[in-house]
Design a protein that fits this description.
heterodimer; A: 324 residues; alpha/beta; Rossmann fold; 6-stranded parallel β-sheet; B: 329 residues; 39% helix
């Protein structure tokens, strides 16, 4: 186990990470707004506060690399390159969504971008990612698989059996644990005796790293190292990202019954987006104009996605039996 | 069926199917416990490890959930995979991966992700192994949209159906019966495939239709021969695949005979026998001369004592008695 050291990044990458994190944040805020009006069906779990993980990890992935996400997965889809239009349309259950409206928020797949699914089952994607890594190894494809999951998954058999296989067979997989401290309403410290997730890596003989995800540059460097290692045959890594969701478990949950306002506020003060913006501006790496430009671009990108989703046709009911 | 007189066992037929398909399709990876040097608890992979090696035969510890999840993940990512859970009883450890992931993803992804995985586990009672090694819950899988369910009953079918299973784009539950591995039968040298959803009429008859899958077909055939001596002509149908189900062949037979008796190693409650009962009512109601009858296992876990277990499962005597009462009654 080691701690990632913060290293600086060049301005181009910094602005790119900022742009992507902002897209994820604003996308989710828009989903929240639309969901509250009642025009979006189903349930949504928003990624607000955790953007640095998806963005920082996916920055080092190739399009052909495969990622496996969670119930809180819109951000992972966007960070892996799935167009905002297709993600938003899927959330509306429209024909133009990335799954033609069959999947929705928790069953969203876009293999053409290496996005192998959000997942309605906690821990459900971990063995699938590990199996994809086995496939990459068998085919000698050079691909890396990344499994995103939360602290809620690490007491499940899926997590432990996958870690065991990945280490045993030296598979090219990165286990990216988003420890946001709460599984639904259950505080991690109330769910397990040993609250160091990264310490579990050594139990299976693989490398573990702990990262403060409020620093996206730390996320980026730790993930890049793990991804490069996996790609070059060095085997799997477990990374514990310390993060926090600024909102409730799902939209509709205020998230205040099991967390204090002070705790939520203290994490908001350390918002990774805000911190990167301040870092970029204070170091004269970027001027306010370039930041403003990113905000304007994000706004029009999002507006386009919403208009596309709203104006798209519903699926044809006669296709309900297709693809089973 | 074409044969050249060559006889091999049900277990050997499965190994042949695997050998041929693994040679034909290099993307096939086989994951399971004890399937390497040992050649499988039922000798179901005998000799394959020497031929294909550690790389493609992934011998594992006892961790069915992980084995299944890795196989499904590998299948989604570009391989074709078999996961061998050895006993159908042990498949339950992997239910969430099979039902919630494998069965759903092709559909939910709008057909964009193929899931070419075969999940193998052997069902049923043999040599009084006791409840936790003898369950017959194959119907649970047929109840799940997105899964194909295969119950081979002969060496010929075991080979032909396994080869077909290894060419599907969506998950297949390949459920052999533990009591059949040593059964010998004709298997031709030349290659053949058996399509899913095609039942086979094992014995033609006119008075009653007997439907049975897996090992139960052999009991049904023995019962039919006994009934023949009594002057009762039974038509015996083996569905071979429970999902998809060849409703047409079964319905046509019921319309011809006017009677249906179902033999099932699983309990009657909410099972395959009920599905066939419904089929008779939905598709041949006007032809029925009597209510269909179900000869199933009783609704208890398999007891250990041979005396008790024989009381619980269908037997030739029970089938003969039920059908005789039905026809003569």
């Amino acid at each position: 186990m080691q701690r990632a050291v913060s290293e600086e990044i060049d301005v181009e990458l910094g602005l790119k990470l900022y742009h992507q994190m902002l897209q994820l944040r604003d996308f989710e805020l828009k989903v929240q707004e639309l969901y509250r009006t009642g025009i979006m069906p189903g349930f949504v779990h928003l990624y607000i506060g955790e953007e640095s993980v998806a963005v920082g990890v996916c920055a080092s992935l190739e399009k052909s690399d495969l990622i496996y996400s969670t119930h809180r997965g819109h951000g992972h889809a966007l960070a892996k390159g799935v167009p905002g239009r297709e993600v938003m349309a899927e959330l509306f259950g429209k024909r133009t969504g990335c799954c033609g409206g069959r999947g929705g928020s928790m069953h969203m797949y876009a293999p053409e971008y290496g996005f192998m699914g959000t997942n309605g089952i906690v821990g459900g994607g971990i063995p699938l990612a590990t199996g994809a890594a086995l496939s990459a190894q068998l085919r000698n494809s050079g691909q890396v698989a990344v499994s995103f999951f939360g602290d809620g998954a690490v007491n499940s058999g899926s997590f432990h059996e996958s870690m065991n296989f990945a280490a045993l067979w030296n598979l090219p997989v990165v286990f990216a644990c988003e420890n946001n401290l709460y599984a639904t309403e259950m505080a991690f410290r109330r769910a397990t005796k040993n609250t160091s997730i990264v310490s579990r890596a050594s139990a299976y003989g693989l490398d573990g790293v702990e990262v403060d995800a409020t620093e996206v540059t730390d996320v980026y460097h730790a993930a890049k190292k793990a991804i490069d290692k996996a790609r070059s045959g060095g085997g799997p890594t477990l990374i514990e990202f310390k993060t926090y969701r600024f909102v409730g478990h799902h939209e509709g949950d205020p998230g205040t019954e099991y967390r204090t306002k002070e705790e939520v506020e203290s994490w908001k003060q350390r918002d990774a987006i805000k911190k990167l913006r301040e870092k970029l501006l204070s170091s004269d790496q970027a001027d306010q104009a370039s930041i403003d430009r990113i905000h304007a671009e994000t706004e029009s990108w999002l507006e386009d996605a919403v208009q596309f989703a709203k104006s798209s046709p519903n699926p044809d009911p006669s296709t309900v039996l297709d693809h089973v | 069926m074409s044969t050249n007189g060559r006889e091999i066992t049900y277990g050997e037929a499965g190994v042949e199917a695997l050998r041929e398909e693994m040679a034909r399709d290099e993307s096939i990876v086989y994951i399971g416990q004890g399937i390497g040097p040992r050649g499988g608890n039922f000798r179901q992979t005998r000799g394959l490890w020497k031929e294909f090696g550690d790389h493609r035969l992934r011998d594992t510890g006892i961790c069915e959930l992980g084995e299944a999840g890795l196989a499904i993940g590998a299948a989604m990512a570009g391989n074709r995979a078999i996961v061998d859970e050895v006993f159908l009883d042990f498949v339950l450890e992997a239910m969430t991966q099979i039902v919630q992931q494998a069965a759903t993803i092709h559909y939910l992804s709008n057909g964009k992700i193929k899931v070419p995985v075969v999940i193998r586990g052997s069902m049923g009672s043999v040599r009084n192994a006791g409840a936790q090694h003898a369950h017959a819950f194959y119907a649970w899988f047929a109840h799940t949209p997105g899964l194909k369910v295969v119950l081979p009953s002969t060496p010929y079918d075991c080979k032909g159906l396994l080869k077909t299973a290894l060419r599907q784009d969506t998950p297949v539950m390949f459920i052999e019966h533990k009591g059949l591995y040593n059964l010998k039968g004709n298997v031709p040298e030349e290659e053949y495939l058996i399509p899913f959803g095609q039942a086979v009429i094992r014995m033609a008859g006119t008075d009653v239709t007997l439907v049975a899958a897996g090992r139960m077909i052999h009991l049904a055939l023995e019962a039919a021969r006994a009934l023949e001596r009594d002057g009762i002509s039974a038509e015996v149908i083996d569905p071979r695949t429970v999902a998809p189900l060849d409703r047409k062949t079964i319905a046509e037979s019921i319309r011809k005979t006017g009677r249906l008796a179902i033999v099932d190693e699983a309990p009657a409650s909410c099972g395959f026998s009920g599905e066939l009962f419904a089929l008779a009512c939905e598709e041949a109601f006007d032809s029925l001369d009597a209510p269909p009858r179900r000869i199933c296992s009783q609704h208890v876990p398999n007891p250990f004592s041979p005396v008790l277990e024989s009381q619980m499962v269908p037997t030739v005597e029970k089938i003969v008695a039920e059908v005789r009462a039905m026809v003569r009654g």
